[in-house]
Amino acid sequence: MHSFAGRCICLVRCLSILFFHFLVDVLLKAVGDTPIMKTKKWAVEKGRTVQSLSQFISRFLKLEPGEQLFIYVNQSFAPSPDQEVGVLFECFGSDGKLVLHYCKSQAWG
Amino acid sequence: MSDDGVLDPGHFHLDEKSFRFCCQSFLQHSDLLSDGWSWTEVKGSEGFMKKTVLRPRRNSPLKTEALDFMTEEEKVEEEEEEDAQVECEKQDVVVYEYHVLYSSSYQVPVLYFTASTLDGRLLSLEEVWNSVHPDCRTQLLNEPWNTLTQQEHPVLGQPFFMLHPCRTEEFMQPILETARREKRRINYVVTWLSVVGPMVRLVVPVSYCTVPDQNRV
């Protein structure tokens, strides 16, 4: 284990453990007529905000400028845009992941 | 509405009785969290929930949301600076009063609010518009004056700002449909307020949706 390869493996393991603590598994589920994302499971940084995630999903789904994306936790509650994903994971995560439902609708107004 | 609180299928609005139940439950939770909501009942008229929040203005010298973010030492230093600072601070604090009413014409809850400085000056529609969450501003940009308007408060008769309820059923629909299908109960007012609140800087703590209770529709 004192070989160069051994030390690399050790370093990679340490980094994975570090990353593990900074990332949360998020499972994205579509609601209603909203398009389903091909990749549903994402590793998201704990400090990422709901708004940032929402923008990401909107771009991924190629939403029109007039369309709005809503994100829900616990299938019933829209977390504040400034809320951190890590905090939501602590409150609502189960089986090692946070399930978020997303829904598309026409522009407000 | 039937006895078990199930809404008419195909409808995503709320009747007044259910609105009151939802508010009752909401208020119980608010008390637990000391979130500051209270119920006001005016004789011969409807009741509504209300909450008052003090905030620094967005582009004020106060950099954070908390007014007591400064330590005592720092506060003294601040005071020792020009006297103009004191005048400035009064202008930079905005008092928001949020009211949750029931709209009998749309049969959904409606959010009214008023914003004024500490010396009693009401903010203009433009000033309020500027305080809307920047990300929500893009959403409201298409027809902002239709969605955020100045209206006479139905009970108090004073001018208030209001988020128009015409789209409420639309954004509530997918959530309610899924909940009904899975025979889950949700609190209509909690879900609705969690969506519209952030648009006008009203924070609804996420724990409102975790407490199981009887008063859900």
Automatic annotation (TrEMBL), chain A:
Name the coiled-coil region(s). none
- An example Gene Ontology biological process: autophagosome maturation
Q: Which InterPro entries match?
A: Atg12, Ubiquitin-like_domsf
State any GO CC term. Answer: autophagosome membrane
Where would one find the signal peptide in this protein?
Answer: 1-32
Q: Which domain of life is it from?
A: Eukaryota
Provide the protein's localization: Cytoplasm; Preautophagosomal structure membrane
Keyword vocabulary terms for this entry:
Acetylation, Autophagy, Cytoplasm, Isopeptide bond, Membrane, Signal, Ubl conjugation pathway
Transmembrane annotation, as ranges:
none
Q: Quick one: where is this thing mainly located? A: cytoplasm
Annotated membrane topology: Peripheral membrane protein
Q: Name one GO molecular function term.
A: Atg8-family ligase activity
Please name one Pfam family that this protein belongs to.
APG12
Q: How does it assemble?
A: Forms a conjugate with ATG5.
Entry's family note: Belongs to the ATG12 family.
Q: What is the stated purpose of this protein?
A: Ubiquitin-like protein involved in autophagic vesicle formation.
Q: Specify the protein name.
A: Ubiquitin-like protein ATG12
